[in-house]
Write a structure and sequence with these properties.
CATH topology: CBS-domain
CATH superfamily: CBS-domain
Mean pLDDT: 82
Structural class: alpha/beta
Oligomer: single chain
Distance between the termini: 32 Å
Low-confidence stretches: 25-50, 322-326, 381-385
Number of strands: 12
Length: 390
């Protein structure tokens, strides 16, 4: 992010803070309707209208903007790997280029046969080390140092073709650039698919990758251009996390002194993308997501046996993240945080999730990008009839 862009976003955040204070003051005076009571997610007297009705300006923008237009300013060469690429090589590319996924190309053609992402890698590690065993035998496999070195060698030498969509979470959904953002959200991103390859209709090659984060960037850019969140968000502006019932699923967490491999197991078994790391009193210390497996190799594979906080420090050092030591506390929000602040935090910090905490910093929920995408679902009757998929 450039200095000018960061300064612009900080100015927007200051404006949003002022708006938040005004809204809270109006609520204290009884002039701003509360849509929920203090029990998270329970609607009371002022029921929230459908999101498409509440955010008509934004819905219109999403329906009128194509994928090509969204990515036009950030067009870049797409990094590919062939199906016989070893996993150790793919992980090195992910770490060096700070990527989360790689399209996999057939060895003897230009055809894209799938995606390999960090969730696939994580799922493969759990399956490789567990070998189909259940508790506590699977844990014993992870805890055996010699066995971990052996598994690390097998892990590194695996061809990427063997783990395509191992997580069953990000299937290949190819799209053309002429599709609209409303279609992209409705047909892919709201379904939990995090990113899609964008194909050129003429020569059928991948020209870009569109992600859920690109939609967040689009919205924040429109807010910055308008200078007024309400001009983009409509009556969604000021609605809080609780009012919109965001992040209501149970939090998956683990204690900070448990080994890192426990986090991998929790992610796979609960089909989430991250777990909260808490201290002995339950306060949020860090989070462990699938991105932490980037940079794993034969030599450091056994570090999965170390306490999760130690693994996080070493993992983030390996992939060159600025917060590697000490690891930073996750960016948070509360049930009273308005949606415009949620969007800006997600964008400014390049986040894929935002943890909801109570007054004691204990995690209550987590807002994922998929949650936001579902909030943006357009009404069915407004969707264009042209198909998004190839």
């Amino acid at each position: 992010m450039s200095d000018s862009t960061l300064a612009r976003d900080l100015r927007t955040l200051e404006k949003l803070d002022d708006l938040d204070h005004r809204i809270m003051k109006e609520r204290e005076l009884g002039s701003f309707p509360m849509a929920v009571d203090k029990n998270r997610g329970l609607e009371t007297a002022a029921s929230i209208g459908s999101v498409p009705e509440a955010a008509q300006p934004l819905m219109r923008m999403l329906e009128e903007t194509t994928i090509n237009r969204l990515l036009g300013e950030s067009q870049q060469e797409v990094t590919l790997v062939t199906e016989d690429t070893k996993l150790s090589v793919a992980l090195s590319i992910l770490a060096q280029q700070r990527l989360l996924c790689l399209p996999v190309q057939a060895k003897d053609s230009v055809d894209i046969i799938g995606f390999v992402d960090v969730l696939d890698v994580l799922a493969h590690i759990v399956r490789l080390c567990s070998e189909g065993k259940s508790h506590p035998e699977a844990d014993e496999a992870f805890e055996n140092t010699i066995m971990m070195y052996q598994k690390g060698f097998n892990f590194a030498s695996t061809p990427v073709s063997a783990i395509i969509d191992s997580s069953s979470r990000d299937p290949l959904v190819p799209v053309y650039g002429h599709g609209t953002l409303a279609q992209l959200i409705e047909e892919a991103f709201s379904q939990g698919i995090h990113r899609v390859p964008v194909f050129n209709r003429v020569n059928e090659v991948v020209t870009n990758i569109a992600s859920q984060s690109d939609i967040i960037r689009f919205i924040v850019d429109r807010i910055n251009e308008a200078g007024d969140p309400k001009a983009v968000l409509g009556s969604l502006m000021g609605k809080t996390v609780d009012e919109l019932r965001l992040g209501t699923k149970p939090v998956i967490s683990m204690k900070d002194d448990l080994p890192a491999f426990k986090a991998l197991q929790l992610i796979v078994r609960n089909r989430v993308s991250a777990v909260a790391i808490v201290d002995k009193v339950g306060q949020l210390m860090a989070d462990f997501s699938a991105t932490e497996v980037r940079g794993l190799s034969v030599d450091n594979f056994p570090t999965l046996r170390k306490p999760v906080v130690t693994f996080l420090e070493q993992s983030r050092s390996r992939i060159g993240r600025d917060e590697c030591y000490p690891f930073s506390t996750p960016i948070i929000c509360t049930g009273d945080t308005p949606i415009e602040t949620v969007l800006l935090k997600l964008h400014m910090h390049g986040l894929h999730r935002l943890w909801i905490v109570d007054e004691m910093a204990r995690p209550l929920g987590v807002i994922t990008l998929t949650d936001v995408m579902r909030l943006l679902l357009p009404p069915q009757e407004h969707l264009a009839s042209a198909p998004l998929n190839m």
